[in-house]
Amino acid sequence: MTSNAATLLGPGDDAAVVAVPDGRVVVTTDLLVDGRHFRRDWSTPYDVGRKAAAQNMADIAAMGAVPVALVVGLATPPDIPAFWAERLADGLREEAARTGAAVVGGDVVRSDTVVVAVTALGDLQGRTPVTRGGARPGDVVAVIGRLGWAEAGLAALRRGFRTPRAAVEAHRRPEPPYEAGPIAADRGATSMIDVSDGLLGDLGHVAVASRIRIDVESAALPVADVVAEVAAACGVDPLRWVLTGGEDHALAATFPDRAAVPDGWVVIGRAHEPAGETGDVVVDGRRYPGSGFSHFAADA
């Protein structure tokens, strides 16, 4: 466990006390289950700790807030070595340190399956929270962070490979662009979301919440060399992984115009009046098949 300037009372009591000067607390929580969200033969406990912290703090950043504290629950079989839990804690602590956050408490219980539950707290620092429901027709859509990397790493691992290392490490330890969330909020982002379920799937959440239609321009999407390399080896179009691959924890947001888009973000499309009441996402004017989400299931 760790502490920072916001930690008024850290581990050792019934609960921690954390100062959030803004007066509002952004809260999110996620679970990682062994065999579903990670595999112990693929990832070290340190990797799991980094990933558990990252996926929660990315949600905090997507609201335009700064992570300040994490609380961790660990359910574990009794035969897990002590070093496994210790290295998990190391990963949690070091990922939290990337944002200045601290691990301020938690709990450990006996279980048949390893489960890591993380709750993250964030400080808006006076900002208005950026939700999924604020996008407007005419807004530009932009992304920052990796897309398709974790999916490429997962594909390599499933085939028994540990290379390319950059892709495999991206699956084990995502690298969310934490600082970009608050900066986007300061620049007037009208909506924002953490890309955890795939770009199309998460833009779909924005489209539904904002009652808009989003048109993604495939030519504008960044396709990293490592993603293209693994995709070629697997006989897959790399664009599919960029559009539908999950667990990269990039950020996607809408802005009033290109001038509002901060440095480092890539404009990939635009928001339009909805074609229906629930919102929609298309790629180059057409619905993209096979994304795994019902609102993208029908081909054009």
UniProtKB/TrEMBL annotation:
EC class: transferase
InterPro entries: PurM-like_C_sf, PurM-like_N, PurM-like_N_sf, ThiL-like
Source organism superkingdom: Bacteria
Keywords: ATP-binding, Kinase, Magnesium, Metal-binding, Nucleotide-binding, Thiamine biosynthesis, Transferase
Binding site for Mg(2+) 3: D14, D59, D194
Annotated Mg(2+) 4 binding sites: D14, T28, D59
EC number: 2.7.4.16
Single GO MF annotation: thiamine-phosphate kinase activity
Keyword Ribosomal protein belongs to the record: no
Positions bound to substrate: H37, E247, F293
Residues that bind Mg(2+) 5: D197
Pfam families xref list: AIRS
Residues reported to bind Mg(2+) 1: T29, D30, D107
Record-annotated PurM-like N-terminal domain positions: 12-122
Family the UniProt entry places it in: Belongs to the thiamine-monophosphate kinase family.
Miscellaneous comment in the UniProt entry for this protein: Reaction mechanism of ThiL seems to utilize a direct, inline transfer of the gamma-phosphate of ATP to TMP rather than a phosphorylated enzyme intermediate.
Protein name: Thiamine-monophosphate kinase
Organism in which the protein naturally occurs: Acidothermus cellulolyticus (strain ATCC 43068 / DSM 8971 / 11B)
Gene name of the record: thiL
